[in-house]
TrEMBL record:
Endpoints of the signal sequence: none
Entry keywords, A to Z: ATP-binding, Glutamine amidotransferase, Ligase, Nucleotide-binding, Pyrimidine biosynthesis
UniProt-listed GO biological process terms: pyrimidine nucleotide biosynthetic process
Catalysed reactions, as listed in the record: L-glutamine + H2O = L-glutamate + NH4(+)
Origin species: marine metagenome
Gene Ontology molecular-function annotations: ATP binding; carbamoyl-phosphate synthase (glutamine-hydrolyzing) activity
Pfam families: CPSase_sm_chain
Protein name according to UniProt: carbamoyl-phosphate synthase (glutamine-hydrolyzing)
Length: 142
């Protein structure tokens, strides 16, 4: 992920393989990642979750705030690949793929949050591709 101040946060791709530009915001909730993903108030934003493990109870049919994912991208410290919940119908990764939303894990989400808190709102690019292409895309979007 590239922020408009030039900061680069490298990690591992998950979800749909694409590049998305959006306003980068953070959320400090400990639960409710499915609700965050589908909340219309996050439309077009790249959301960074500060809680370290996300995806541990999977995705189910009861916890969506709308009929589709609203975020442009999703950033987590660690994503659980094997959720443990009887109502789970798919993993977080599968859900993001089906909704064509890119994600990244293995990044220091607390560092991103501290940067956003100290410097304010900024645009960013979430990409699974070369950083040079992301820099060009972000430059033309801002």
């Amino acid at each position: 992920m590239l922020l408009e101040d030039g900061s680069i946060f490298s990690g591992n791709a998950f979800g749909f393989s694409t590049q998305e530009i959006g306003e980068v915001v953070f959320n400090t909730t400990m639960t409710g990642y499915q609700e965050v993903l589908t909340d219309p108030s996050y439309s077009g934003q790249i959301v960074v979750l500060t809680y370290p493990l996300v995806g541990n109870y999977g995705i189910n049919d009861q916890h969506s705030e709308s009929s589709r994912v609203q975020v442009s991208g999703f950033v987590v410290r660690e994503q659980c690949e094997t959720p443990s919940n009887g109502t789970s119908t798919e993993t977080l990764h599968e859900f993001l793929v089906s909704q064509q939303i890119p994600g990244i894990y293995g990044v220091d989400t607390r560092a991103i949050t501290k940067r956003l808190r100290s410097q304010g709102v900024m645009m960013g690019v979430l990409t699974h591709g070369p950083i040079d292409a992301a820099k060009r895309a972000l430059g033309s979007a801002t």
